[in-house]
Specification:
- The protein is an alpha+beta fold.
- The protein has a domain of about 90 residues: Roll (Nuclear Transport Factor 2, Chain: A), CATH 3.10.450.
- About 35% of the residues lie in helices and about 20% in strands.
- The chain has a four-stranded antiparallel sheet with strand order 1-2-3-4, with helices on one face.
- Strand 2 and strand 3 form a beta hairpin.
- The longest helix is centred in the first third of the chain and has 17 residues.
- The chain is globular and about 40 Å long.
Length: about 130
């Protein structure tokens, strides 16, 4: 009887573990944006695709020796999921609407962006100072 109880308990734990719900894109976006705002690049890279990791490495180099300015401020608005892709809409610290693209790889949502598109959307584009007016 005791063995049957232990076996049933073990099966229940396995079943409950298998039923654990995967993170939603909004959850991943929140963790990612928080890590970015705190300059926690390794944590942000864990939530990113390979192409995004390369950009995060560059950002880490640019911010080396700098300290973040307070807690990151943003507000997740919603997420639109289309199969293996998602877009999370949020407001940055200035209240401006931004979006973060995610892809699902091996059952896990990952932030996907290119170096031309910083996820916070606040990095100004370089100005061409050599152009003639």
């Amino acid at each position: 009887m005791k063995k049957a109880f232990l076996l049933a308990t073990a099966v229940a734990f396995i079943f409950l573990g298998a039923c654990k719900q995967a993170e939603k894109p909004e959850d991943v976006a929140k963790k990612f944006l928080t890590s970015m705002g705190k300059f926690e690049w390794d944590k942000a890279k864990e939530l990113s695709t390979d192409s995004a990791k390369a950009t995060l490495d560059m950002l880490a180099m640019f911010t080396a020796g700098q300290k973040p300015q307070g807690e990151p401020k943003f507000e997740i608005k919603d997420a639109k999921i289309d199969g293996e892709k998602a877009v999370v809409n949020y407001l940055n610290d200035k209240g401006e609407p931004k979006e973060l693209k995610l892809v699902k790889k091996d059952g896990k949502w990952l932030v996907d962006f290119k170096k031309e598109m910083p996820p916070m959307g606040d990095t100004p584009a370089p100005q061409d100072t050599t152009a003639k007016k």
